[in-house]
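Troubleshooting entry. Yesterday's outputs looked truncated, so today I'm pasting the complete records for two proteins to confirm everything comes through intact. If either block looks cut off, that's the bug. Protein one:
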Amino acid sequence: MQKQIKGFSLIEMLLVMVIVSGALFMAASYFRQRSLQMRIDRTSLQMQQILNAGLAYYVANNKWPVANNTSVDITATPTTNNLQANGYLPKGVTIANPFSGGHYSMYTDSTGKLFTVYTSITGGSAGFPAAAGNSIAGTLPLAATTATAGTPPPIGTTAICSTTTTTCYIVTSINIPGQNLNAAGAVNFAGVYRHGGCVPVPTCPTDPATGTALTAEIQVVPVSVSGLNDSGSNAVYPISSFTAYAKGPATQPTQPPNCINETTAPPCNTNIQGNAPASNAYWRVCLQVITEKGDVQGTNNSTSNPATDYGANVTLMAITRCSISNEPAGSKFTIYGN
């Protein structure tokens, strides 16, 4: 009898090799695409993080972290650039995109209105820098790509990265925070007070730009004004004018001075109107009312029950803040400060 020999035919082996090769090719392609997407996502997130850090720096310091018409290479200066040196980005960490080219730079235009972050992608197959760059730009605010180098790279319809581009630059920008309004973000506290009320002076931090303490300031705004003339009198007179202001010396004591022409203002250590303990420094907010009868310094100036009676007929809003030393002035008008 003839013995039967078992095994795989050449065709069967070739078929298995084709199937295995196809599976390996698809797996390799998937991991390549996945790796590329991870690098795109990482670059997008890092650029967005730099933009957010620039915004945080502006809100705190009323200026961008780089001087106007100047570019700073963040990747080349991981410990000395303003964002990392002041803790807005992790200190001592080199932040670079995972593509060839790698460096992130920040730039402020000559007007100081735009803060720009840019980076580049080089190498790879034909069209790779443009494809990766356009994918990154699509996830960022006010972003575009360009094939033209510059400080920062100029963007425009004639410079968009194409399939023939060997180096693609990604440029994204943000403008001044809309709610800043001359460091309005530095407002510490706003509250409603009566005439003669005590407003705690804020403890201001150090200005990172100068190394000196920020200046405590207060703004006082009239909210309601009465023509009632004097305590215990029901006579009402037409109001000619009124002015809100604050009192406090250059070196703040526990007790601020009285309002102009006042002798009966309650002390601030009585916790009037829910103020802080007497160990704090205070401003006193005042409202000067001029009626047809004359100067009315505060209505219902009662000392018997100051928590409920003193200045009961007028209302003031006091806003305290800490201003930086190099804050741009919108006009010659200044507010009260120490």
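Protein two, checking that the full record survives here as well:
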Amino acid sequence: MPAVFNALPGIEVPVGSISKSLAQIWADPSSPDASVSDDVKATQLNLVLHLGFATTPDDGCTQFQTALRFAHRYPCRVVVLCPLANDGGVTELRAKVYGECFLGKSKGDTRCVEFVALSYPLSARRYLENQVSVCLSTDLPLYYWAHRFSLSSRLADYQYLLRSSKRVIFDTAIVPGDALTHPWPRPEAVRDLANARLLPVRQSIGQFLAGVAPARLVEGLVGVNVTYSGRQAPEAHALRRWLTGRLLECGASPDLRFLVNERASEPGSTLAVTFVYTGTHQFQWQGDFQAGHASFEANFGGATIRLPTAISLLSPEAALGEALFF
């Protein structure tokens, strides 16, 4: 993890002078009394990005850039945590600061984002919460993004962040299988980035099925099959969870059978949904994310409807916003 901390952008500063160093970033070198105004530096939230032990330097930089692009839309103070899996006798914390300004919708709409990166050995873990609280912007909501952690039980040790954060997010594609079922302090705050990426799919399927009366939709419905190819297993399971909730709300039987299967022989990156009926009703949706197109085939009485449509997954920064705020 020192390699991750070293790879991140920023200027290394003493931990005790983080606030002063952030202020110096915005100082105008041509005028000792001038700096970027508080209006320009106004932030909307605090985001803690916690990089797990399995994070590589390239991966850490990728997540840093995702947070930076997210901050272009939602200006924020970002604190990046870089724990040391093997501290090699290191006992002190290290810090970096980074700032960037960018234009909004007009030339007069300038906003800035601030990053603080903290590298710490596990022996200094007990001091981390105090240090993080010092780095955060006061009176703003806190959001916690846990990336690539290896044990849910180990992450559960970060009680301050888990209890204080308005949202706790992670990606079920790269975290332990029990992440969604682990007894987190505030399970209602937990969000999955795999589900967030699926927003265009959920909207497309939801809008199509909204034209069918709920009673007709679940009449004779005995099962739902979700199939996938490529690396879409996390999205397939997220789609299954979403369909389960929506169909039960429509009056489907609690005994409804849900299956998720891989199409191992199918190339590309695809998802498909098939409703299994005992009668003549039918519904199928399938999407190819590489080609960017999807199609519906359905019959709920009358003529069979076949409808092509475009499809995509949200970008990482858009998925981050969806997971944090919705």
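Both blocks look complete. Sanity check on protein two: Residues 30-34 have pLDDT under 50 and may be disordered.
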